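batch job 7 of whatever, protein = propionyl-CoA carboxylase
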Amino acid sequence: MFKKILIANRGEIACRVIKTARKMGIATVAVFSDADRDAVHVELADEAVHIGPSPAAQSYLLPEKIIAACKETGAEAVHPGYGFQSERASFCEALEKEGIVFIGPKPKAIRAMGDKIESKKFASQAKVSTVPGWLGVIENADHAERIAGEIGYPVMLKASAGGGGKGMRIAWSETEVRDGFERARSEAKSSFGDDRVFIEKFVVDPRHIEIQVLADAHGNAIYLGERECSIQRRNQKVVEEAPSPFLDAKTRKAMGEQAVALAKAVDYQSAGTVEFIVDKDKNFYFLEMNTRLQVEHPVTELVTGVDLVEQMIRIAAGEKLGIRQSEVKLNGWAVESRLYAEDPFRNFLPSIGRLTRYRPPEEGTFGDVVIRNDTGVAEGSEISMFYDPMVAKLCTWAPNRLAAIDAMSEALDSFVVDGIEHNIPFLAALMQHPRWREGRLSTGFIAEEYPQGFSPVEPDGEEKAVFAAIATAIELLRRDRLDRLGGRLAPHSGHLKRDWVVKIGTDYLLAGIVDGMVSIPTEIDLSIDGGKPLTVASGWRPGDAIWHGTVGGQGIAAQVRPVLNGLRIAWRGMSVTAQAMLPRTAELERLMPEKLPPDTSKMLLCPMPGLVVSIAVAEGQEVKAGETLAVVEAMKMENVLRAERDLIVAKLNAKPGDSLAVDAVIMEFA
């Protein structure tokens, strides 16, 4: 077994590998760029080596820097994590030349499966079900349009060297093929240095289901069940689960056996994933093989009890698999939510900045529930524009699917992140979505359920009552605390007042105290708008970020943040400003004028921090609704900004190459 390994990666996956290596008694070496000098993975490792400037192309993507770090520290092997060097055969070969072990598959398998065009040809020869498509080189947009017409719409355009949803477009018409081809090729070139694009038939209402495989150097290979990865946005996975709510035992076995056959055919030696598209009739088609550890591997670990990182290390060290296929059992259900630094209310555009507050839910086993949080950041960490915007992977396990979803819902409500925009509101709302809870999924789920983008979830009557009850209980404690301050001329509240008004949005709800007293822990009976009394019980103390308790017997985990004259309360993807006040104060508050936001209807604002790739219009130009105005790149994804209506461009305030902050004015309209 290795005595020391180097992790050629950063963030949460570097931390994840370090934890398993430490458990195995293996010393670890971290590498870091300028931007990651104070990163968590650097602190967690036994040693750390600086490898260059912040851009990945000048640090993490340079094999010579990794090899030099190995020689400097005496690392015997390198774990690549995912992304960066993980699927580069040339990197694997460079390590082998220096006598350093690559903790992953051999170059032959990486080359055979790493190129999407070649992998589909190989899979077809190995009798694996494949999607109809064109696997040759596509010369230009005209060629792409001709091929798409022969295959039949809709079609999917994909970067051959792609991954993570980059360089991928769905086209339903000739126009979309032409535009999609250029965008996919441009993204592929900037992200992977390879602009080759291929086309295949797009399966309508597909599910994205993948099989985890393990194979050693002695001819042994097994599959560890499947992961359902159909909840995707822009072809980027957002929520994964294991097992799939759709597969039956027969289909699972067939998919698993094909995945193992493919792994054996390429002499695969490590952990790998064979991805399939599955239609509504459970027909499945090979999509690609990821010759690395997957981002979503924790859900497989939670339902099988197998540490995939440990298995990768043992296989790389030459050991035989210690698990037989008959010993693989799927136990319970696991769900993973990817926490991204992105604004769900701005069409999920990237957000960067410093984490001024970062308080994940407590990890561990709580009764029948397991909570796990794979992360590479801490309070004070900076989310950089140079790397992937993923902040953490929150995972829950429970004996059944709905219990795992409910555990995830509460864990998300308990996850406090300040300083950046993030997708927790969306993830929390998703956990309550009927279609998700029923398991009626497809890769088009987000686009179908949120066609206009994600908007703040509006609470109904019962939910408003919950918010009002929490706000009233907190206000009672706040006033009681003020009364206890020394040197006050008179009590702020005097005896316990029974009648309160809670303003939520534009609604004013009456909150009457039926029974109880102000104390910690709190237990008060409240009637909201004359309804049946609700018992509000909580051990919350002023200053706590999470209000844990019950309202009417319902368990609640809500985030509370003080705002001017009230609270911001977030729960289950809903976020409201609540003001609990005495009736006379509410009467006067109703008379206050409403402050209107500034009018930006005649401006194109930059929706996220990014780089202006191109400006498609000129001053004085008439533009029709839907036409492209500008293209802005953020975190290697190109975002096309289009006109929402017919207009005339009055002034251009930005030019290609400019770096813009969020809400910077790109252009003004007449």
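notes: The longest strand covers residues 221-233.
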